[in-house]
Amino acid sequence: MSSTFGHLFRVTTFGESHGPAVGGIVDGCPAGLHLTEADLQPALDRRRPGQNRLTTPRREEDRIEILSGLQDGVTLGTPLAFLVRNQDQRPGDYVALRAAPRPSHADYTYQQKYGIRAVSGGGRASARETVSRVAAGAIAAHLLRERWGVEIVAWVDAVGPHRANVEVGSVATGAVDANDVRCPDAAAASLFIEEIDAARRDQDSVGGVVACVARNLPVGWGQPVFSKTEALLAQAMLSLPAAKGFEVGSGFAGSALRGSQHNDAYVARPDGTLGTETNRSGGVQGGITNGEPIVFRVAFKPPATIGQAQESTDFEGKAVTVEGKGRHDPCVVPRAVPIVEAMCALTLADLALRQEARRVR
Amino acid sequence: MSSTFGHLFRVTTFGESHGPAVGGIVDGCPAGLHLTEADLQPALDRRRPGQNRLTTPRREEDRIEILSGLQDGVTLGTPLAFLVRNQDQRPGDYVALRAAPRPSHADYTYQQKYGIRAVSGGGRASARETVSRVAAGAIAAHLLRERWGVEIVAWVDAVGPHRANVEVGSVATGAVDANDVRCPDAAAASLFIEEIDAARRDQDSVGGVVACVARNLPVGWGQPVFSKTEALLAQAMLSLPAAKGFEVGSGFAGSALRGSQHNDAYVARPDGTLGTETNRSGGVQGGITNGEPIVFRVAFKPPATIGQAQESTDFEGKAVTVEGKGRHDPCVVPRAVPIVEAMCALTLADLALRQEARRVR
Amino acid sequence: MSSTFGHLFRVTTFGESHGPAVGGIVDGCPAGLHLTEADLQPALDRRRPGQNRLTTPRREEDRIEILSGLQDGVTLGTPLAFLVRNQDQRPGDYVALRAAPRPSHADYTYQQKYGIRAVSGGGRASARETVSRVAAGAIAAHLLRERWGVEIVAWVDAVGPHRANVEVGSVATGAVDANDVRCPDAAAASLFIEEIDAARRDQDSVGGVVACVARNLPVGWGQPVFSKTEALLAQAMLSLPAAKGFEVGSGFAGSALRGSQHNDAYVARPDGTLGTETNRSGGVQGGITNGEPIVFRVAFKPPATIGQAQESTDFEGKAVTVEGKGRHDPCVVPRAVPIVEAMCALTLADLALRQEARRVR
Amino acid sequence: MSSTFGHLFRVTTFGESHGPAVGGIVDGCPAGLHLTEADLQPALDRRRPGQNRLTTPRREEDRIEILSGLQDGVTLGTPLAFLVRNQDQRPGDYVALRAAPRPSHADYTYQQKYGIRAVSGGGRASARETVSRVAAGAIAAHLLRERWGVEIVAWVDAVGPHRANVEVGSVATGAVDANDVRCPDAAAASLFIEEIDAARRDQDSVGGVVACVARNLPVGWGQPVFSKTEALLAQAMLSLPAAKGFEVGSGFAGSALRGSQHNDAYVARPDGTLGTETNRSGGVQGGITNGEPIVFRVAFKPPATIGQAQESTDFEGKAVTVEGKGRHDPCVVPRAVPIVEAMCALTLADLALRQEARRVR
Predict the structure, then answer these.
(1) Closest chain C residue by Cα to residue D262
(2) In chain C, which residues have their Cβ closer than 8 Å to the Cβ of A359?
(3) pLDDT at B94 over 70
(4) Domain spanning A4-360 has what CATH number?
(5) Less packed terminus of chain B by CB within 10 Å, N or C?
(6) What is the DSSP string of A127-178?
(7) Is the pLDDT of residue D50 over 60?
(8) CB neighbour class for B165 (10 Å; exposed up to 12, middle 13-18, buried from 19)
(9) How far is A137 from chain B (nearest CA, A)?
(10) Per-domain residue ranges for chain B?
């Protein structure tokens, strides 16, 4: 269960950063969907390390191979297994770390939980694990787009103390990818890039926020009371490495408002359905999509691995100085954009199928 | 699945506010735990409407009855079913609402999802549903306390624009319940009460934040990668009515920091284990408890039902003026305190049992 | 999980024979189904002890109460909770049994598993637990009948060494209930009744077989590879108290045949679909319904509780003589008929909804 | 869910016979278990086609590769993914079959369910799918043996009308593998081999029964009421291709007995626990292991693909003559022996971990 996400459209993932491969199995994807490896590769390329100067210099080509579930480029309705071979492994980078747990890393908790001191620290706590999420999420996004016209767009909304200003109704992937930091607000993007460059120069790291919108959703997705749309999105996002917060619609800021300021009045739409004038609800009411865009934000802490010396304690309880030697990103949010989109797609594809099952007449 | 939470310690809930009863079944509670209805009633009393002037005047006695799973006050290891009869139903309050969906309520989404216009709007979207969570959570909290000594304490951390200052290491239930608004910071409590009173006077409502700490946790709970501790807590909290945000440890504020500011250095504890000097991680690393207190915050929007007139649109698309007539809380957070504790307990009890299953030697 | 059955149409049950009540929650039943307690009571009456001279004299009225999920006799799509209060409890009957585990009963295994010596032996191993299955199954059967026209009919196919001869294509509930032993073959029914009477006279018990047919099924239900239709039916049936075997279609007898004797040739049906000339497959191919009737048989052992003295050993390992004193059936199969139908309906309703979720176009 | 088995020790499988690979992911295997590919290969070799003259001449080398979850030959507690590349594909064998569904094959039901006419008929209905089960089962069997000393041995118990006589208390794998037909009763083995040879000569096929015993089990495994040991074994076995029946202990024969003949009296064991004098219960009481060997039998139909001409109907409803051209086994039971053992191990490993989670003191 712990490596499985979803109830009807469900992915099970595997893989450590220092083993032979990462990958997963998507079970429950409907039959008859046109799908090839070329539909998945672009999402992996956006997640790939070494894609530009803001990310880790560790390079992985991350070629995906689909192992099952297809015939002549069409899904069979059977499990879709996929695989990405690991490359450019330098376990030597990690050997020196084994005497002391890296601060704010999962080395210590993994060791205590599993009783094994892994060469890579917490192998599944590595960002490498997210390759499988991105591949599976690309399948989900493809299904959502083909069958319901759903669009999912994420972007970097904050880096350190700076915040962007983005129009959620119209933001598009092209604008997001127009710069290395993946922020469609050009002015903010400049500040973000400066901030990340400064952190790297200081052998330090910096946190940030990714925002995401899902548009063209039908009314009715979401399964109260424990599988409400926002509940599953929250689980999905907080399962990401380095994620520390999630908010939907008005979020934390909304908790400071009055009801009369916060309520979204209904308006008649041209097609006879109801919409809302404002969208502080973030596209959900009572856990169910209301047809407005789902809008949410995810907070990511600064990466734990930094080049600066840090005073800490080794596994035996002796004081030590720890210095990060691996090749890591100074800021995770530019590469987190496709990962957030992937987890959003996995969540919505599952809820879409669960709603289909309710439509028995 | 949608009304079930947990994998090994799992609760399934039922009940609408206007049906005969609410309740649930806890399956997976270990045998041999001393438990009676008296262990559960106090939590329900803390959640009960009408308990003081800050809450709705709607009164429900909320007497719990346990229907199975016990013999002579000891759990048998079989399902524990429990029941709370509904009282003081005034469906008349709701009839007038049926022509138009209440803004920011679930009336419209429930109707579109299920194809039924329910007398109570979105029946399972009502706060009444949380009775079952509180009862089940009290069983979980009892198990956690008896077997592992875990303490869970939540409190009101913000109301409207005001915020409290609370020491998470020592905050106790007695201090929380010392005032009606359930905030252990007395100065903040006064501001909170004023804010809620003002909202009520204005026939309006106001939002707020509940914070929660879980102490005395062993290292090793949490199931990467999709059932990380913070991921399941996030799901649990965002499944609550009116919840719009979740953050653990440093949360959104942490995303503005540098890694050198954020990292928690390890320190040797007297018992030979490792602790951390600071706790910006919020008690989890890589999704696994590290022995430090879990600390998280949950944002709640202002209640959607307000007495003020609101311009909106009816189900047929015609402009209408909506006025709330039900008896509702002007602010949900004081009563949300035991609910947040309950969902925290359910999440941790499940992860506790899942870790037991891993300890095969 | 252990008291939950089903993935989309799922029931969770509770209750010991000597506690206050038995019941359950059905989650996932589609909205808009007409349903009242009167739709469920007849199935409970068929399962009820004391209904005729072939069954235990223990009488339970077994009145069902639905606690949630309905409005004006129509399902809301929310959980349907139901409750049957226990009556006529005579714990005194069981006290004498506590020194020694009853042979072939669950007293010993329950005690070893849960670490509790329950007053009722293995409380959830009692046939009383099946009340919840029958109630939930009646909801499932109602859904299957209303939405797809599915008919499920079970009957007693063997008692002791005698076997009936029944036409599966046309057998109907009226013919099944025409006699107390629930066998539509009148000649076999006489032999069955004689056999059960003889067992009772001898203070003994006797085993038997229940057969079941489900008709009017669409092609395509069943979820390979682990949730094949026959796999879930097998789980459902072997989860029943006293069940020792399951076979579908040709079953064990089919394993003695040649492929040329066993294969079901396809024939064109008037409606343009394909049927099969024979039905040795029992309505499933590759785990998926093929449109032919599902036919299966379930073997039940003789009840373990008999009046005769039996030489055995007590919990401390000392030789003892055990004599059954509870009021039990000399043969379970007549009352097992509605229970087998219920579990068949629960299995098929779940697979029906799972197939709906696959029909995304 | 449909390609996932198990709750805590869970396998998810993938792969069609005509795609690039088959394999799976085992999630939940405890950390610290010594495991290499060499521990799994022997089970695959026993399942492999072309291993002797009784099986299909189709040869697959079936080399297993483990992709994750290991470090220096020890499990990390993270998902174990494994892969077997397909070889010797001859899609040409199948092309001619596409005009008409093969009788008693899954071609028609797969097409109707998924809406795709697959080149291989029902790709996941192929025996090739069982490679993944055998590999995962070998991991489970290894865990059961290393941690609890559990032994699982299956054998061919019947072929066509002939039946073996085997001592379940002592039967060992060496004796099973002493002949090609995998029956430790040498006299029966000769009859079985003759029967299979005769079927092949006639361009026909023949059914059979596999029996299995699991020994050295602790008391207390099994999760009433829906995950009783025998219920999950029944699901596991009926999920196998060609399986039509399952019985545990006395099974169908036991349903003809009286209670006084059937009950298993308790006896004191030297170690202070209780055993039973006889084992008609088959090692389970109330769904929970009682410490006696689990004994069960699985009926397999004759393979549907035969060389003889069969009169049938094509997809369009026209009469056709069908002749099998693929390379298939005339009898599945010799190769089903390791598959039955694998599914038994997967079932028991999951129940073992589920019982560990209950042992909270």
Answers:
(1) C302
(2) 30, 356
(3) no
(4) 3.60.150.10
(5) C
(6) GGGHHHHHHHHHHHHHHHHHHH--EEEEEEEEETTEE----TTT--HHHHTT
(7) yes
(8) exposed
(9) 14
(10) 4-360
